[in-house]
């Protein structure tokens, strides 16, 4: 069992940066693939980024590649999402998720554990 708690959301202006954190409790955090998803107003939840337990491999949605960076610190059981050059379209509730295995990295259905989400709002 893994419990995930996100933090770091807030209100920013277009062009600003923000860093989200997801702290995990439970066993064997380092064995899980971690990811961020988001759900904007009136939209389906979508994949943002993932990072394998082998933390050198990361995967990003086209909409955030080059602006967002996912990273993890297994020693403190935390995964981060650094968001730069933010746009109003980045406004969403951001969710942290975890799964075992290194396939289906962008598939929401493949993730077993989810956080409660943190709101990010980007004003123009």
Tell me what you see in this structure.
The strands form 2 sheets. Strands 2, 4, 5, 6, 9, 10 and 11 form a 7-stranded mixed beta sheet that branches. This protein has 124 residues and is mostly beta strands. It is built from no helices and 11 strands. The chain is globular, with a radius of gyration of 13 Å. Helices cover 0% and strands 52% of the residues.
In short:
The chain contains no helices and 11 strands. The protein is an all-beta fold and 124 residues long.
Using only C-alpha atoms, the radius of gyration works out to 13 Å
Determine the mean pLDDT. 94
The description of the largest β-sheet is:
7 strands, mixed
Q: Helix and strand string, N-terminal first? A: EEEEEEEEEEE
What coarse outline follows from CA principal-axis ratios? globular
Number of helical elements = 0
- What is the helical fraction, as a range of percent? under 10%
Distance between the termini: 40 Å
Task: Using brief descriptors, characterize the structure shown.
globular, mainly beta
Write the layout of secondary structure elements.
Blueprint: E1 2-7, E2 10-13, E3 18-26, E4 32-39, E5 46-51, E6 58-60, E7 68-73, E8 78-83, E9 92-100, E10 113-114, E11 118-123
Parallel strand pairs: 2-11
Antiparallel strand pairs: 1-3, 3-8, 4-5, 4-9, 5-6, 7-8, 9-10, 9-11
């Amino acid at each position: 069992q893994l419990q995930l708690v996100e933090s770091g959301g807030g209100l920013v202006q277009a062009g600003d940066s923000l860093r989200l954190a997801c702290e995990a409790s439970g066993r064997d955090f380092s064995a899980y693939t971690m990811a961020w998803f988001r759900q904007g107003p009136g939209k389906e939840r979508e994949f943002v980024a993932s990072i394998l337990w082998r933390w050198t491999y990361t995967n990003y949605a086209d909409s955030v590649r080059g602006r967002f960076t996912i990273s993890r610190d297994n020693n403190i059981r935390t995964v981060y999402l650094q968001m730069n050059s933010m746009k109003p379209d980045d406004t969403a509730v951001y969710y942290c998720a975890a799964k075992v295995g290194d396939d289906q990295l962008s598939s929401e259905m493949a993730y077993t554990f989810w956080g409660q989400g943190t709101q990010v709002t980007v004003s123009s």
